[in-house]
Amino acid sequence: MQQIEQQEDIGPSDAEFVLSILQASPSVRDSRSYMASFAPDADDMAVGAAEAANAASEPNPLVETMLNPIVRRPALVKIQGPFTDHQLFSIARGIHHLQKLGLVSVVVIDRDDIPPTESLDSVAAEAQRTLMLRDVERCVHFLAKSQAPARPVLATVARLGDTGDVYVEAEGLDHVRRAVAEGEIPVLMPVALDEGCRSRRISANAVLCALAEAMSTTSAGSVPLSAEAPAGRMDLTPLRLLVINREGGIPSYARQGFPHLSINLASEYDYITGTWQPQWRSTHPTALSNLALADECLSHMPRSASALIVSHRSPAALISNLITNKPAHSASLPHALLTQSEGRVTRDTPTLIRRGLPVRILRSTDEIDKVKLTNLLERSFRRTLNQEAYWARLEKDLDFVIVVGDYAGAAICTIEGRETGQHICYLDKFAVLPSHQGDGTVDFLWVGLRDETYGLGLLDAANPSVGSLSGVGRGRDLVWRSRADNGVNKWYFERSNGFVTSEDGRWKMFWCDAEQRLREMAQENGGVMRVVEPEEDGRLQAWAPVIENIKSAWSA
Hints:
By secondary structure, this protein is of the alpha/beta class. The chain contains 20 helices and 19 strands. It has helices at about 1-10, 15-20, 30-40, 50-55, 60-65, 85-100, 120-145, 170-180, 205-215, 265-275, 280-285, 285-300, 315-325, 335-340, 370-380, 385-395, 440-450, 490-495, 515-525, 540-550; strands at about 75-80, 105-110, 150-155, 160, 165-170, 185-190, 190-195, 200, 240-245, 260-265, 305-310, 350-355, 360, 400-405, 410-415, 425-430, 480-485, 500, 505-510.
């Protein structure tokens, strides 16, 4: 213990902290999003942040703003122990880094080894309370050693209603507000006052849900946290829910028990609970309760808010998530790249959770809201659609349309080359409204696209979206084209199996191979894949003229 405390007194260097920021690799969009929350008067600084990050001799406005955030935003944090001193110190360092970046944690302590029990006698209940109080004190101690001032909130913030519901009144919230106003991290016990004014140990999740509701509903008309903000009018609306535990993220049926990278609650919640595996009850005993916690808390928080379920062994993920509001790796990247590449997805990879949007698969033009889809395409591409010609083409060639939310995003697939007997599955349009770019909609849309085309036929392609094929069928190669100078091509490169450039240099034609076919060919060849398999020979030459001759959908 003494050795640890001596190391703690040193504290992280500024160079180490700045390096951890840069390692998050924020894009220009990420920078804008972060600075809109933590430096709302300096949005224009984000434009040059990405370029400055690559030039050592130039100041990086993004880093400078992160080191001196103008305003501060709250986060709800569950520290789900028990943890050793070394583990708790690592967690405290991570929370300190978040505080330096402008995210002020409101911490609730939890213990997996002493779950709350209604039938406890007074002696056992008092023993539980003593253990929880000790953990609160340990957390405050290590936060202080990490140079993050903290305050134990020993007053009972939550109350129990006559029906067992948990809520936080204004008086209870004042304890949290005062701590935050004075620059301290409040650390709470999971207790509540019952109708007889007795303090009772309850679920930490119940306290967090009550705090999420109270902190969000009492912040109307309030101002961001800053040195000038009056304590009574501080905006306590939480922007993040962080669950720091020992078991890591939510295990995924599609990834053989490795964690989900991101979850769209609106379309995946029921599917995840329905495909829960018995063996995960021992390896991830609190995963489903944490998923339910995220669902409830995020329902009270802003739509841009997210929840992160993260192992104590992944402290760097806290900074990366705060800056980018994205998962550790994009869920739309090829499965093999994520699961087979060393160091990509591990048992400790965190899970990012969003409220998300429902996803539907439409297979007839009669099901499409043409006005809304036209608006989406024109706003996304910033061009005018030749509506008469485009809708006439879809009437003839439509395969399906994936729609996210109320046309916040869409992927339109057609069947091309019928006249030559090819029946090419062609991604005609992939569009997301500007207001939804960076909120996970792009990844949710591409995952659905994969499951309906080149991933079809595999167990992990059981897409829970309304109208999907649910993984039943045989995968098809997916082909699309993009202008050679399109800035999105880098994103396409990472998700495709290959591309070729047209003879005139105007287009790049991308494709994703049907994964089921690739697996079968690898099995036939003893696990070895040829550069070009016999059945694939000549397909690019056959695709190219068909794809290049597709007429533009846009008005001149």
